[in-house]
């Protein structure tokens, strides 16, 4: 199977992302990479839990002073939805419907940007509104680093998906770019799972 | 023939090396190093228990080494290639279930045997519950010393006795002394090898343990044990020595009483009086000379000098005499790079004033003798 | 780019090495760079031992001494031992599994250049205000306190290098899982491939905690964060946990490939298959797994509590069991064999008693209450040098001889090799054995000098003399390498004569595509099987056909260079007006190059079948 081979929805392989050796390698390699990223985020979570509410003096801002459920909930719903839309995109990829895949990827990116918008607003509110800056306390450093690293991953993921969409817009699906779309979507799911943990550990646990 | 000779030489080299290693081992285990510094000459119960554990584990491990080396030497001698069997292809053996079981089970058993005293001693040496016991007046029954490590000196506070001192830790023999260990700045580690293992002094928390000294061992070591900082803390990490004076109970009580009843210094000569004036202007802001210093710990930024003249060393490492004292005041930054004491040049304290200051300091005693 | 039309000349060679994605050439890059850093680390060690030759020495200042001991540790572990081992894994593993390259050749190159620029960054600190001086462990409160930018170079240099290593780990894992030749089941893989596999899994899971620790240190030092600032609620012990959660698996990352190399050497030069292959595989996996469970045995004196200390002590004992299994299996590989004491085999023989001594002192320091005495003294220094030098370095020296022909096509001189062996091994024991006693006699680690009258003089003197012998041994090795390169006498595919695994079936060095036809693997030690049946080569698994190979690329150099530049910008951000700009430019170069790589298609190229048939046939036949 040559990578630039032309297909129809009927001849397109069932698992196009794994139909070539390169695809298989990318697929496995990326799962391993996500394993390493899991340990990375686990370490940030551990740091956050160790330094939760650790402030220089009594009365300094702690988690119960900061986090509000409505905003965190909306952000969670937006990101979870964007994960579902990326699943739709992959469904269409597997069925060789390039345009539909692109459409759902676009929606995913828009939802991701929405999430980012809310997060920027949230950080702005904490820093300028409440005086809870990065260098404020050990707790603040831990919070911003954990949630910020996640946000940085969201930014990277959005850039990645957008670059793929733009680069391949004129030439459609092939066995060469199918694995690329697939692992980008895997990455996007991963970020979503991390956010579920952030929502639980930082926001929910921070309100008791 | 020549090849056979060369090979034998190599085996001799390997065998000889092993032999010399064991020879040194045997020689040195008979108690090596200085009695005031070596962990191989334990002078108290904690060090003795640790020494016994070391010997026990060494014994088991020597057994392992011997077994391995015997098989090893046998193998390299018996199965080496010679001119005769140059082209022989040996039987390709896959393995042996029996052997695998044997050399799995036996090490497990040996390690279980070692694990028992390891866990037991960990818990017994980590039992500091006695620090919480109080007598009828609500005072702790145990002798407790708060150790506060600094860059690059040690402060010792006896909270139950209202005494603060530094650099020389005075403790009684034949009783457990409990320690609260912490640091004023960065991580150091408190270690008196003949008395026991070390425990880190962290800025984040207070660590607790106990040590004790046997009187006869103390006498053998000349009453003085050497303490070391055992955690890299900067350029002068190697110079952060302290001393431990292990005294019989009555002498220790005498020292405590002298420290508690210490009076303000009375300089005996004109020069020393001048020195006192200089001290009060230039040094008193950091160095207290009242052993009952009740200022909060964080403000005690320099060693308390109440019994300075009775200490073993100056700044932990210098010989205790006027020359070295003056050199320290002039050149503390080169003697202990990175330490927090400012340097006093001739512009700040002239040579005459320095002599006076030294004379005053050399008179700072608490005990009569 | 075909095998025939190759340009010659210095410039062409440099460009070739800078753009190569060939695992064999990347291996040579790793070996050369790692070798260079090994010499640097050795010089740092010599300075340490010269300083400690006599008490109260002023050979170097205390501050410089701290920089020396820090850089010696960092250089030897991160810039010498790891890269050299990765070099051997790169060179040998794909050949052993019958693959034409690794799964991600571009990433392979990127891994090297990231390591290289990270190491360069770290060593530039010497010239830019001072090297890091808080030990290779860089504990939080001390490292935050450090006045020069040395620690910043440490944090960012290791961060960049670490990304490279992580990529290497993933690459090897995917290669071994997906690209084994037909017939190469997991239980037919050579031991060195198995240890590469497990070590790569360790790299994947152990480096992220280091990454996080380094980020926290960077943020505290350069961006005002408070992770380790006690006054603001921070905690310095967090650094220790992260460092050792990485640090302990790290030493197994070092030793497992060394074990793998020795497995190959023992069986090759005993003319016997490895005894207890399945037990060896099991022991390797168990060591890898247990390696993650014991990190706090480096923290027994931190004050974690009795329960923690007891648990970690017993868990640390457990690792002794699979290690012992391995030692006995090697001994019984030799038992009944026909042993030839070539230079690699001499190193393997010396490894047994040396490493076992290091291993048993490991059990001794795992005995928590005893460790209260051992910790942070020269006893620990003796222990880890016994396992690292007696294990990893001896393996590296052995493998240098063993695999030299496979990498370069020539053979190192045996006589000079044996001279190095004697000097180095005798010097090693002389240097480190006495240090066990120095530690117990009251000598802490990392002290710039020791005072006279404390009983430490003689031991230090002996130790320093031993170091001189080790240095002489290394110098003889360098002479050996130069002489061999000058003489340039080429050897065949199996110069040791008793090769058992696939790499010895190929020419020395192999053609850039490795196998003309992917091999058919018939069992463990498949080349030995073919030999014993009187065949000259390997049974092929496919007919001769076009071979698909990857293109070279200069982008890995640019990506790494970009991060290198960005690091400078980050370090000098607050002090210099150009800081922020340089940081941004560096990131643009790095990410821009990555984008270029992603946007531009790269399908590799094909070697046509006709070219393969017209090449002089060496090794595999159609």
Automatic annotation (TrEMBL), chain A:
Q: Which domain of life is it from?
A: Bacteria
Record-annotated membrane-spanning stretches: 28-51, 71-91, 103-121, 141-166, 186-206
Give the location in the cell: Cell membrane
How is this protein positioned relative to the membrane?
Multi-pass membrane protein
| UniProt keyword annotation of Protein biosynthesis present | no
Q: Specify the signal sequence span.
A: none
* Residue span, Heme-copper oxidase subunit III family profile domain: 28-207
- Gene3D superfamilies found in the cross-reference section: Cytochrome c oxidase, subunit III, four-helix bundle (1.20.120.80)
Could you tell me which InterPro entries the record lists for this protein?
Cyt_c/ubiquinol_Oxase_su3, Cyt_c_oxidase-like_su3, Cyt_c_oxidase_su3-like_sf, Cyt_c_oxidase_su3_a-hlx, Ubiquinol_oxase_su3_dom
Whether Membrane counts among this entry's keywords is yes
Which keywords label this protein? Cell membrane, Membrane, Transmembrane, Transmembrane helix
Q: Which family does it belong to?
A: Belongs to the cytochrome c oxidase subunit 3 family.
Q: What is this protein called?
A: Cytochrome c oxidase subunit 3
Highest classification ranks of the organism: Bacteria, Bacillati, Bacillota, Bacilli, Bacillales
């Amino acid at each position: 199977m040559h990578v630039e081979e032309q297909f129809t929805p009927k001849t397109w392989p069932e698992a196009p992302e794994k139909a070539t050796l390169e695809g298989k390698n990318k697929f496995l390699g990326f799962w391993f990479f996500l394993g390493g990223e899991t340990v990375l985020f686990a370490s940030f979570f551990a740091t956050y839990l160790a330094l939760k509410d650790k402030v220089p003096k009594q009365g300094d801002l702690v988690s119960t002073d900061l986090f509000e459920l409505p905003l965190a909930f909306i952000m969670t719903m937006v990101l979870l939805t964007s994960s579902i839309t990326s699943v739709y995109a992959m469904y269409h990829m597997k069925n060789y419907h390039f345009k539909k895949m692109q459409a759902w990827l676009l929606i995913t990116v828009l939802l991701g940007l929405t999430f980012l918008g809310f997060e920027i607003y949230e950080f702005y509110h904490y820093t300028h509104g409440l005086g809870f800056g990065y260098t404020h306390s050990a707790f603040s450093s831990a919070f911003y680093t954990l949630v910020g690293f996640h946000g940085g991953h969201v930014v990277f993921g959005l850039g990645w998906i957008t670059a793929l969409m733009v680069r391949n817009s004129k030439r459609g699906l092939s066995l060469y770019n199918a694995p690329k779309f697939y692992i980008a979507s895997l990455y996007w799911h991963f970020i979503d799972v991390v956010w579920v943990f952030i929502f639980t550990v930082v926001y929910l646990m921070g309100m008791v | 023939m020549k090849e056979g000779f060369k090979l034998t030489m190599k085996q001799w080299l390997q065998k000889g090396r092993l032999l010399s290693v064991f020879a040194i081992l045997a020689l040195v285990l008979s108690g090596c190093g200085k009695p005031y510094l070596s962990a191989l000459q334990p002078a108290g119960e904690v060090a003795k228990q640790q020494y016994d554990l070391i010997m026990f584990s060494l014994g088991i491990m020597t057994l392992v080494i011997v077994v391995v080396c015997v098989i090893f030497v046998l193998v390299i001698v018996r199965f080496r290639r010679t001119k005769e069997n140059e082209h022989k292809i040996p039987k390709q053996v896959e393995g042996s279930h029996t052997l695998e079981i044997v050399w799995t089970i036996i090490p497990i058993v040996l390690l279980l045997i070692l694990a028992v005293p390891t866990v037991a001693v960990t818990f017994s040496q980590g039992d500091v519950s006695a620090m919480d016991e109080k007598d009828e007046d609500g005072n702790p029954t145990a002798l407790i010393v708060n150790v506060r490590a600094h860059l690059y000196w040690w402060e010792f506070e006896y909270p139950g006795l209202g005494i603060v001192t530094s650099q020389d830790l005075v403790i009684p023999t034949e009783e457990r002394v409990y320690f609260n260990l912490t640091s004023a700045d960065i991580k150091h580690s408190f270690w008196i090898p003949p008395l026991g293992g070390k425990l880190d002094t962290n800025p984040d928390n207070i660590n607790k343990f106990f040590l004790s000294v046997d009187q006869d061992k103390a006498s053998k070591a000349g009453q003085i044990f050497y303490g070391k900082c055992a955690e890299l803390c900067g350029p002068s990490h190697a110079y952060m020595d302290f001393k431990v004076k292990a005294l019989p109970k009555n002498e220790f009580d005498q020292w405590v009483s002298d420290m508690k009843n210490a009076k303000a210094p009375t300089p005996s000569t004109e020069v020393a009086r001048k020195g006192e004036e200089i001290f009060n202007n230039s040094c008193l802001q950091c160095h207290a000379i009242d052993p009952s210093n009740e200022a909060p710990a964080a403000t005690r930024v320099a060693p308390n000098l109440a019994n300075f003249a009775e200490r073993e060393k100056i700044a932990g490492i210098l010989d205790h005499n006027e020359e070295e004292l003056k050199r320290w005041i002039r050149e503390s930054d080169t003697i202990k790079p990175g330490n927090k004491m400012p340097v006093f040049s001739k512009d700040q304290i002239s040579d005459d004033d320095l002599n006076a200051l030294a004379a005053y300091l050399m008179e700072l005693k608490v005990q009569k003798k | 780019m075909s095998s025939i039309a190759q340009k010659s000349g210095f410039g062409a060679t440099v460009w070739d090495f800078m753009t190569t994605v060939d695992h064999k050439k990347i291996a040579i890059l790793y070996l050369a760079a790692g070798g260079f850093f090994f010499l640097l680390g050795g010089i740092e060690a010599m300075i340490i031992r010269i300083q400690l030759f006599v008490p109260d020495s002023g050979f170097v200042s205390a501050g410089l001494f701290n920089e020396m001991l820090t850089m010696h540790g960092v250089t030897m572990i991160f810039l010498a031992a790891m890269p050299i081992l990765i070099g051997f894994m790169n060179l040998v593993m794909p050949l052993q599994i019958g693959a034409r390259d690794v799964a991600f050749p571009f990433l392979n190159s990127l891994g090297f250049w990231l390591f290289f620029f990270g190491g360069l960054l770290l060593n530039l600190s010497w010239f830019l205000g001072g090297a890091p001086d808080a030990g290779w462990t860089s504990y939080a409160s001390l490292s935050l306190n450090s006045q020069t930018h040395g620690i910043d170079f440490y944090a960012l240099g290791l961060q960049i290098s670490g990304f490279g290593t992580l990529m290497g780990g993933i690459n090897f894992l995917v290669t071994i899982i997906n690209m084994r030749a037909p017939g190469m089941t997991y239980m037919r893989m050579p031991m060195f491939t198995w240890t590469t596999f497990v070590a790569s899994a360790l790299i994947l899971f152990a480096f992220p905690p280091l990454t996080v620790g380094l980020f926290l240190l960077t943020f505290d030092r350069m961006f005002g964060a408070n992770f380790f600032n006690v006054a603001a609620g921070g905690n310095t012990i967090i650094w220790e946990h992260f460092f050792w959660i990485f640090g302990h698996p790290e030493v197994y990352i070092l030793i497992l490939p060394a074990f793998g190399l020795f497995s190959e050497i023992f069986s090759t030069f005993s003319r016997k298959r490895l005894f207890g292959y399945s037990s060896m595989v099991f022991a390797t996996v168990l060591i890898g797994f247990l390696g993650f469970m014991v990190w706090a045995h480096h923290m027994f004196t931190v004050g974690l509590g009795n329960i923690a200390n007891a648990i970690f002590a017993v868990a640390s004992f457990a690792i002794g069991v699979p290690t012992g299994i391995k030692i006995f299996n090697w001994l019984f590989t030799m038992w009944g064999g026909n042993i030839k004491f070539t230079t690699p085999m001499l190193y393997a023989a010396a490894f047994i008693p040396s490493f076992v001594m290091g291993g048993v002192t490991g059990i001794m320091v795992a005995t928590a209450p005893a460790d209260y005495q051992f910790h942070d003294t020269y006893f620990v220094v003796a222990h880890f040098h016994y396992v690292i030098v007696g294990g990893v370095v001896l393996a590296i020296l052995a493998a240098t001889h063993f695999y030299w022909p496979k990498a370069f096509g020539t053979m190192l001189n045996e006589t000079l090799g044996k001279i190095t062996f004697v000097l180095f091994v005798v010097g090693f024991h002389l240097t480190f054995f006495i240090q066990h006693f120095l530690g117990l006699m009251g000598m802490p680690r990392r002290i710039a000098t020791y005072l006279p009258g404390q009983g430490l003089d003689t031991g230090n003197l002996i130790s320093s003399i031993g170091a001189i012998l080790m240095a002489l041994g290394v110098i003889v090795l360098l002479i050996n390498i130069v002489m061999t390169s000058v003489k340039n006498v080429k050897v065949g595919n199996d110069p040791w004569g008793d090769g058992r695994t696939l790499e010895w079936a190929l020419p020395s060095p192999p053609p850039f595509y490795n196998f003309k036809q992917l091999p058919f693997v018939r069992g463990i030690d498949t080349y030995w099987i073919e030999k014993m049946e009187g065949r000259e080569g390997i049974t092929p698994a496919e007919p001769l056909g076009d071979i698909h190979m990857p293109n070279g690329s200069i982008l890995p150099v640019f990506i790494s260079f970009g991060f290198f530049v960005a690091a400078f910008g980050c370090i000098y951000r607050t002090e210099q007006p150009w800081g922020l700009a340089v940081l941004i430019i560096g990131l643009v170069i790095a990410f821009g190059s990555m984008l270029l790589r992603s946007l531009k298609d790269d399908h590799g190229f094909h070697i046509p079948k006709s070219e393969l048939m017209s090449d002089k046939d060496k090794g595999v036949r159609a």
